[in-house]
Amino acid sequence: MRTNYKLGALVLAVAGLSACRQDMHDQPKYIPLRPSEFFLDGRSARPLVEGTIARGHLNDDTAYYTGKGADGKPVAEFPFPVTKEVLLRGQQRYNVYCTPCHDRTGNGNGMIVRRGYRRPPTYNSDRLREQPNGYFYDVITNGFGAMPDYAAQIQPQDRWAIVAYIRALQLSQQASINDVPAEARGQIGAAK
Amino acid sequence: MSQIFHHSTNTFTRITLFGAVFILGFLGWVMFTLNGSDYVTRATQAREQPVPFSHAHHVGGLGVDCRYCHTTVETSGFANIPPTKTCMNCHSQIWNTSPTLEPVRASFRTNQSIPWTRVNDLPDFVYFNHSIHVNKGVGCEVCHGRVDKMPLMYQYNTLQMEWCLNCHRNPEKYVRPREFVTTMGYQPAGDQEEIGRKLVAEYKIQDARTLTSCSTCHR
After folding, report:
1. How many domains does chain A have?
2. How far A72 CA lies from chain B's nearest CA (Å)?
3. Which residues of B touch A25 (CB under 8 A)?
4. Which residue of A31, A32, A117 is in closest CB contact with B124?
5. What is the pLDDT of residues B65-106, one digit of tens each?
């Protein structure tokens, strides 16, 4: 019968090993979005205590963070110089977050609109062309009518980049062949 | 005393002694294959979700970019599962009476999280980071497969150490230009190895020695 004890011990040891392994695989620590049994709402991510300001997030530059001046009206000027990099970044972000509804040209015929979402107005109207830059920033930050807000998904820097790109889209829809440099005109027909 | 075993058992013993090597080898092979098989790694098995969210519909059908929902994938280690608010951006108006979407609306009303089932899950002793991979031109598709064809999400690769190392040794076989990281069905414009080597240099991807050192992933 002695061998059977040995066998039993071995089985136990192996079982013990596998238990350790599992512990190291799922350690009792919080990783992002892991549920918690400790907090009532079941979330390990805790809401910030009211009034908390993270270092570097005082956001006291109201024009930059709200798009509005001291008088509460949308600002006209851009908070930073618009370079080609800013425009390209704006284009990329616009194509990710806005095209589902506004489509790539800004005419408001995106895929979600074709599936029944309320149709947004085109950017290429005189009314929207005359709006100051801060107005567009505000629409992204707070939403507008049937349009949801994008404050949680897009960082302020990128919101401004998108505004710059919308300006480019508005220009592009009014451009004539005379706006194209003479040496590049041949390429337009070729691209079609 | 008469012999208990017949003479022929000698041969039998010899064969089994000799064969043991093969039998052990075979068993080893079985273990190895089994360990990397879908049955053990749970790859390619779709998981039940509280809402049958379909990437095939939203990515393949509607063309929504990954980053619309997985917002932090370029800037942090964690790719982020979208909060209910992101779903409600569209579903406040679209299919807003669908019974399938009731858990989403309930979550929005009551401020209770939707308990999504985790699909890709590395052991906690492994350090993984999305942002470095995405910014150095490793496409989602390489690791997660054709997400735009998945009605329900499943794990595409084994996620075993061997798999990570395989790429860390030869990243040029997999990297693509950064602007295509979220593209599904990407085809390299030319020879992958050649483009890959250029990109590895351009993105300053470190050498295999650094990328396969234990402390890269176990820190």
Report:
1. 1
2. 27
3. 123-125
4. A31
5. 999 999 999 999 999 999 999 999 999 999 988 999 999 999
Task: State the alpha helices, DSSP H only, in B58-101.
Answer: 66-69, 84-91
Phi–psi pair at B127, nearest 5 degrees? -100, 120
The Cα–Cα gap between A75 and A64 comes to 9
| Residue pointed to by tokens 């108006």 | B93
Name the residue range of residue A147's domain: 62-175
Which pair of structure tokens corresponds to residue B12? Answer: 């039998």
Q: Are A162 and A94 in contact (CB under 8 A)?
A: yes
- Flag whether the pTM goes above 0.80: yes
- Whether A77 is covered by a domain: the verdict is yes
Compute the count of residue pairs across chains A and B with CB atoms less than 8 Å apart: 61
Q: What digits encode the pLDDT tens for the residues B183-208?
A: 999 999 889 999 999 999 999 999 99
Residue B8 in tokens:
């022929």
Question: Which tokens go with A22?
Answer: 């599992």
**The domain that contains A103 carries what CATH number?**
1.10.760.10
Nearest to B93 among A32, A43, A146 (CB): A146
A10 located within any domain: no
Instruction: Look up the ipTM and state it.
Output: 0.82
Nearest neighbour of B123 by CB, restricted to A25, A116, A117: A25
Q: Which residue has the tokens 């009518």?
A: A145
**B92 with A31: Cβ contact below 8 A:** no
- The answer to whether residue A22 is domain-embedded is no
Q: Are A90 and A165 in contact (CB under 8 A)?
A: yes
